[in-house]
Amino acid sequence: MTNATAGFTLDTLLRKKLEKLRRKEKDARLHNRLSALLWLGQGRTPQEVAGLLGLCPRTIRNWLQLYQRGGLPGLLTLEYQGDPG
Predict the structure, then answer these.
(1) Closest CA to 8 of 55, 64, 72, 74
(2) Predicted confidence band at 40 (pLDDT cuts at 50, 70, 90)?
(3) What percent of the chain has pLDDT over 70?
(4) CB 46 within 8 A of CB 5
(5) 8 within 8 A of 40, measured Cβ to Cβ
(6) Buried-state track 12-37, b at ≥16 Cβ within 10 A, e below 16
(7) pTM for the predicted model, two decimal places
(8) Which of 30, 52, 26 is nearest to 39 (CA)?
(9) CA angle (2 as vertex; 18, 68 as ends), nearest 5
(10) Regarding predicted confidence, which is higher, 19 or 78?
(11) Cβ(40)–Cβ(21) below 8 Å
Protein backbone atom coordinates (compact mmCIF):
# COMPACT_ATOMS: atom_id res chain seq x y z
CA MET A 1 0.00 0.00 0.00
CA THR A 2 1.30 3.43 -0.85
CA ASN A 3 1.41 6.16 1.71
CA ALA A 4 -1.53 8.38 0.75
CA THR A 5 -0.27 11.12 3.04
CA ALA A 6 3.27 11.25 1.66
CA GLY A 7 4.09 14.85 0.88
CA PHE A 8 0.94 16.20 2.55
CA THR A 9 1.78 19.43 4.34
CA LEU A 10 -0.07 22.46 5.64
CA ASP A 11 1.31 25.97 5.32
CA THR A 12 1.27 28.21 8.39
CA LEU A 13 -1.77 30.25 7.35
CA LEU A 14 -3.87 27.18 6.59
CA ARG A 15 -2.78 25.50 9.83
CA LYS A 16 -3.86 28.57 11.83
CA LYS A 17 -7.19 28.67 9.98
CA LEU A 18 -7.80 24.97 10.71
CA GLU A 19 -6.88 25.39 14.38
CA LYS A 20 -9.30 28.31 14.70
CA LEU A 21 -12.09 26.36 13.01
CA ARG A 22 -11.41 23.36 15.27
CA ARG A 23 -11.59 25.49 18.43
CA LYS A 24 -15.00 26.86 17.40
CA GLU A 25 -16.44 23.58 16.09
CA LYS A 26 -19.19 22.12 18.27
CA ASP A 27 -19.87 18.98 16.19
CA ALA A 28 -17.50 16.25 17.38
CA ARG A 29 -17.45 14.63 13.94
CA LEU A 30 -16.17 17.79 12.30
CA HIS A 31 -13.79 18.47 15.19
CA ASN A 32 -12.28 15.01 14.60
CA ARG A 33 -11.91 15.64 10.87
CA LEU A 34 -10.10 18.92 11.49
CA SER A 35 -7.89 17.28 14.12
CA ALA A 36 -7.04 14.49 11.71
CA LEU A 37 -6.07 16.93 8.98
CA LEU A 38 -3.86 18.91 11.37
CA TRP A 39 -2.12 15.75 12.61
CA LEU A 40 -1.60 14.47 9.06
CA GLY A 41 -0.11 17.87 8.22
CA GLN A 42 2.39 17.34 11.05
CA GLY A 43 3.57 14.14 9.39
CA ARG A 44 1.62 11.60 11.43
CA THR A 45 0.44 8.51 9.58
CA PRO A 46 -3.21 7.57 9.09
CA GLN A 47 -2.59 4.69 11.50
CA GLU A 48 -1.34 7.07 14.21
CA VAL A 49 -4.22 9.49 13.70
CA ALA A 50 -6.74 6.64 13.69
CA GLY A 51 -5.33 5.44 17.01
CA LEU A 52 -5.66 8.91 18.52
CA LEU A 53 -9.29 9.20 17.41
CA GLY A 54 -10.34 5.58 17.94
CA LEU A 55 -11.15 5.10 14.26
CA CYS A 56 -9.84 2.90 11.47
CA PRO A 57 -7.03 4.18 9.22
CA ARG A 58 -9.27 3.87 6.15
CA THR A 59 -11.59 6.53 7.59
CA ILE A 60 -8.65 8.89 8.01
CA ARG A 61 -7.49 8.25 4.43
CA ASN A 62 -11.06 8.86 3.20
CA TRP A 63 -11.17 12.20 5.04
CA LEU A 64 -7.87 13.20 3.46
CA GLN A 65 -9.28 12.34 0.02
CA LEU A 66 -12.38 14.42 0.75
CA TYR A 67 -10.14 17.36 1.61
CA GLN A 68 -7.88 16.89 -1.42
CA ARG A 69 -10.87 16.69 -3.79
CA GLY A 70 -13.15 19.31 -2.26
CA GLY A 71 -11.06 21.46 0.06
CA LEU A 72 -12.48 22.46 3.44
CA PRO A 73 -16.09 22.47 2.18
CA GLY A 74 -15.63 18.86 1.06
CA LEU A 75 -14.10 17.81 4.36
CA LEU A 76 -16.73 19.56 6.45
CA THR A 77 -19.76 18.21 4.57
CA LEU A 78 -21.35 15.37 6.48
CA GLU A 79 -24.09 14.54 3.97
CA TYR A 80 -21.91 13.14 1.21
CA GLN A 81 -22.57 10.10 -0.95
CA GLY A 82 -20.18 7.18 -0.97
CA ASP A 83 -18.46 5.90 -4.05
CA PRO A 84 -21.21 4.66 -6.40
CA GLY A 85 -18.91 2.14 -8.02
Answers:
(1) 64
(2) very high
(3) 86
(4) yes
(5) yes
(6) eeeeeebeebbeebeeeebbbbbbbb
(7) 0.84
(8) 52
(9) 30
(10) 19
(11) no
